[in-house]
Queue: 2 jobs
Job 1
Amino acid sequence: MKPYPIELSHKMTLLHLSEQSFRTDRLTGVFALPLRQETAAQYAILPGLLTRSCAAYPTLAQFSRRLDELYGATVQGEIFRMGGWQLLAFSISYLNRRYTLDGTDLTAACVNLLLDMLFDPALENGVFPDDAFTQEKRCLLERLQGEMNNKRLYARQRCEELLCPNHPFSYNPNGTEATVNALTPAVAEAARQRMLAEANIHWLYQSADDTAALTRELDNRFATLGERLVDTVHADTSFAMKESELTEKMQVSQAKLVLGFRIAVTEPDGNIVAAQLMNTLWGGCATSLLFTHVREEKSLCYYCASTYDRYAGIILVDSGIQPENAEEAREEILRQLDAIREGSFSDDELEAARRCLIQRYSSACDNADALENFYIGQTIYDNYLTPEQMRAKALEVTREDVCRAARLTHFDSLYMLMPNNEEVAE
Amino acid sequence: MNPVKHPLLGDTLYTETHKSGLRVVVWPMPEASSVYAVFATKYGSINNILPTADGGTEEVPEGIAHYLEHKLFESEQGDAFRQFAQTGASANAYTTFDRTAYLFHASENILPSLEILLNFVQDPYFTPETVQKEQGIIGQEIRMGEDMPGRRVLFNMLGGLFHNHPVRVDIAGTVESIAKITPELLYRCYYRHYNLHNMVLVVAGCIKPEEVMDACDRLLKPAEAWEPDHYVVEEPATVAQEYVEDAMAVAAPLFYIGFKEPVVSHTPKTLAGARMLIDLICGKSSPLYSRLLEEGLINDQFEVEYFGGPDYGIWLFGGESADPKRVKDMIADEIARLQQEGLDAAAVEAVRRGAYGRLVAGLDDPSDCGELILSHLVDGVEPLSELNALAEITLDELTEQLHARFDVKACTLSVVNPL
């Protein structure tokens, strides 16, 4: 059954997922704000600050002890980029009453704890305390600096910057070192208030319980704010044809090759499932053309995979290879895209990709995290399809739909992270 | 199969040792929409000695268990991945220090997928050409690992902690060591370790026990009698190196602190005790965690873990820090303080609830359920007995473990500094 969001007061929606039966129940608030360079860090520090304490449990130790007492209830604050949006997701998950050792129902306590984190944080003189703020600012800064540690992700980020320079599609949702350094406790508190007042807010509730008590509590909390003036984004996914290329050196053992493509199939109107199937066939599964030809036939790499961002209209293909094999890998990657454009792939290959894609949708059903992620991806347009409905759409995609999606895919940028052999030699 | 209803979860598990020697556990989950199946052997990178025909022993190349895992997907009829592609199952495999596991996750065509799994793991096919072809692929996997600072700092720590035990060696081996692998060696390793008496099958999700046993009856091949290895690794209680330093392209120093467990034993209560002790020493609700954060010595990358195998146990503390030596001293001091002053009863009860809740919360997905059962079987404890132990373990038992399982002097600090 197609899930419909419940319209709440204060310009919010609630998606109630009551059909799946998990051992845990979960409430998540998704706060979507336009991703801007000047405000990204201000929001990015909030997950750290708000998930470590609240006024009732003002220290990290007290707050963590409370979570232990609530049978290991877990609070999470996550931040990510979705097209031109910066998404902050705050969640609490807790054992269903069937599984607590003494039969305690944790729902009210956990829902209130999550809302206390957001509405009643531990403040001193109206701002975040210096010690907590300093710790979280340092953690955010070190997280940013540490992004270079994962060379594969680092190379992908660099390619995104080539693809969409000075554009939200390549902004780091954690901000920049300069904008993090400029943060103060007062700026962070102002960002919290702005987040509550201006974000597009969608609540996801995974529980068999009804939503009456929750909606009442949400209404009460938001009634303490003034009228919410919700900010919005009009994402421009159009692109000009270009070809950029950048090679950088670092002390690494293996070169990281990333090819960036623009694809004119995006949310909310594009044939997303066709593009997903094309991407799966190209480099998104263990029988994909890239896996078969670049890895298995040519033994050039351990991984050669493609990933599709349906909000930005970007496909990245990346591979870890020996530097001398880069050109051969690049040619093969482009050759396989041409093959899909021309329909030069077998029915077996297409159907294997389709089954893989369907399995990916289905696997969300048995995992609370995966199910939530599946729906968070749809909150932006507030139009929800179930995994079963996505499966039905995947079954309808034709061979020609797949070829068309490939023809709408254009090579744009190449990024190479090469071993710095001189430094290695030293 | 024997049904065993779990007193705390209410779920019923079915277990049986099949006539072929294979231990089979089925966890039916009628409300799930998928099935996770894992067919594993208790053979990992630490099993690096093979018996020879003359009654002696031979050391095999580092990384061979992992290499075998890659090659087992190929058969004379083709690649098992291609067969799974026909059913739509998502298949994979992995090798750790003490196991090699082959698995799939599927929402439809479940029984055909189970048949593929049972068949290909029992059907080795290695030729000089196919073995040679894999050198390039695994070589790149090894190179990828060399660029992972977290992996480097971990294996440097293990190399410092252990003098002789093969847990000190990277699971994937090196480009040089895998070059020595031949089809003949792979076959010998396979027939030594992939005996059904040394293997387990765990299936969790929307499946009936009789369906699994029917597939086992039809597809499992008779296995020869099998005896476990009796090789004893001479490993001193001390560490090989107290401090190991390296440098890579990283933003800040990464560290791992390892404490070597003096006496290793795996029981439900030692597994439960490990979960609780790491939380009591340095979990987020502990005084030490707050102090480390307040002093700017750790960040949100900090992690604490216990991991152990048949004859080794390691308490791990890792993350990023400008002063890893200070972190090590503070952790060692806290362990010594707790050993001297004792555990706080209220903290123990809170941590018990937290650990219990987190373990149960991790049992939604058939894949998580299957992996926990596999882990218990490899550790030699009854499935889910750890959960009961978490509810039952006493303060005295935990205190005893705190004394017996930590030697603060048997510690290695590994650091990877920025270049």
Note: Chain A has two domains: 6-222, 244-425.
Job 2
Amino acid sequence: MKKHIALLALLAVTMGARAQQKSAADSLMNAMNANEKPVPVTIFKSSRLVLAQTTETVKKNELNFQIIHRFGDIAGSNGGGQTAFGIDRVNDVFFGFEYGVSDNFNIDLGRSTIGQLVQLEAKWAVMHQTSDNASPFAVTLVGEAGAKPYQTATFPTFSSRLSYLGQVIIARKFSSDISLQVSPTYVRDNTPFPLLPGNEQSFFAMQASARIKLTNHSGLIFDYAHPFSNFRKNTDTFEDPIGFGYEVETGGHVFTVNITNTNSVSEMNMLSNSQQRFSKGQYRIGFTISRMFDFNPKVKKEKY
Amino acid sequence: MKHISIILLAWLSIMNQTGQGLYACKNAQISLFSSAPIEDIAAKTSSGTSVYNSATGDLIFSVAINTFKFPKALMQEHFNSDYLESDKYPRATFKGKIQEHPDLTNDGNYPITVTGELDVHNVKQTRTIPATLTVAGGIITMKAEFTVKCVDHHIDIPRLVFHNIAESIKINVTATYTAAK
């Protein structure tokens, strides 16, 4: 009898050991996966919201082509049914090309209807938000130079036709649903824009933006900008640009439909000269279409 | 008493066996491929981890979704944020048992079947996957090819991009094991 009990006990211990063995496999697995590498967090779906650029850059060897429209006033004296609520009038069209020199450095070229402004931009993602929060937010630097080549009457010399913009974009994805961003900005217009007595050549501005995720493929976006300019503060025709929109992403495209008061797309124009008012019906439909082209070498099927 | 010592010896030898039966792989190669009308989708990782317990037949695989590398950065971003939601569900795992008992002391190719739970996108599916286990000079290699249907793991494909994305994805796994100490 004693022997039998001992045998049973041993059997039980053996079974127990075997059961433990399974968790040994599990714990070995856990130990192997313990130190996961942090990855950069993608904060926004696109390099541009309604008004502001985002911290996101176009990746290496990719080209982002953007067409951005601002239509005419929806309401007020220039809006209404006569102009199909502004659709008949195109106030600004912006063509943008953003090319990824590297994953973190872009060279961008843009052209606006307003002022026939041609702009060259360098964008550098200095710091990414990381999944382990070691870096809690992303920082991207933007430098722009713009020229209004055709406005020879207002701007007699070439250098008087130039504008510059410098920006630090700081953004954080607070949860999978909410991303917030602020961009302190410096604007310099060699000839004050608009050319009015007392207008400053240069001023600081602050932009604040948000994205709220609706589904995995769409979200709501908000933008606000405020130029710290005494001239603009004291001239009551100037208004702070506000924009809100709906963004949907379909594979290589991102579409945005938005409403803004400002006419201008380019930040140099938008921050310098926004004189449209919501209260006067001077708000408009705008849209952004962006398409990503990939110039990375094709990958052969056999590799996968 | 004699009997007990014999049993004890036998038991010890069993314990010894089970103790040696753990094999680990830290760089399992996992690739996914699917052919869709507009463009093929392909990605690869060599950061999969796996543990094989030859004594019990237990086999575990795990891979961090964000280690899959796509040739197109945008595809990789969409794969993570839109489809697999890797911020919420960072890993895909498989926990199963090898049905056969291949003789690991003899070199050769052993066709095996593994039954277990495949957890992708936080949705578990019981799967039986055929694989090959190769023993060559004490090194164990496992290879498997199987298909994962997006719908089985609640991976939603919106209608707008439907033609761009395949509904089932072919997965290839290769893992080479070394004895775990």
Note: Chain B touches chain A through 55 residues (CB under 8 Å).
